[in-house]
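SECTION: protein entry
WANTED: fold as tokens:
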Amino acid sequence: MLATDVIKNIRRVEIKTRRMAADFFTGHYRSVFKGRGMEFDEVRQYTPGDDIRSIDWNVTARMGEPFIKKFIEERELTIILLLDLSRSGAFATTTRLKRNLAAELSSLLALSAVRNNDKAGLIAFTDRIEKFIPPAKGLKHVLRVVRESIYLSPQGRGTDIAAALEYLSKVVRHRAVVFIVSDFHAPQYEKSLAIANKRHDVIAVTLTDPVERALPNVGLITLEDAETGELFDIDSSSTAVRRHYKEKAAAMFDERRRLFRKSGVDHIDISTDVPYIKTLIRFFRMRERRLNR
């Protein structure tokens, strides 16, 4: 693609997502995320009336008199996008690839952070870390995040969510709001997800094409595993085959939801055939009601 076409496409995505961020996300974003965390400020001597639950027993033992930990409300947030660029994202039976949808969602979230004077950063991954953009403020910085989300050419094929979360813990020391944008076709990430969610506010954004849930009746077809290159034939005209496929897919998605619940992670299920803004609105309103109880 020519440089001028790249710039036009980035501009198109920016305009579309910036409008969404302005129309909806400013109010809901602030009510759901702003001021929800507490950041350590200092240790000071205990004074009558202080909450005894804030006593720092280690410092108290060393000093021989009570000290408490003082916290301040977090006014500035850090938004980290964990963006899955594995080959399974290059799939579509609707009008858009999962990869393109993931880039657009990442752009929207990053622009929402900028509008609220927060920092945004990007960790793009496959079966390896493809790109890390440290969190920062400003439109120029976010446009870099948008560009990399759309046009970064990954070296890996597979998906290693556990490795991406472990990398997150190394490069982001302070509490952040972390969006994992992926189809979650990856093995053995439950433990890493639970650990990451203890330090950060982790939200899983799952991307699914309709064919991943139910197989259409189109006769004999050859499918390829995008991440392994394996080919296999399926007779989709068989009712039994379609039923088995649908049951197996439902079991897989149910298991994924169970994993998220067990890890304490909120999740947003995005389907490529449904306008995602409606799904995001439902999620943010649900989370807002829960946090304001």
In short: The chain has two domains: 3-34+76-291, 39-73. The chain has a mean pLDDT of 83.
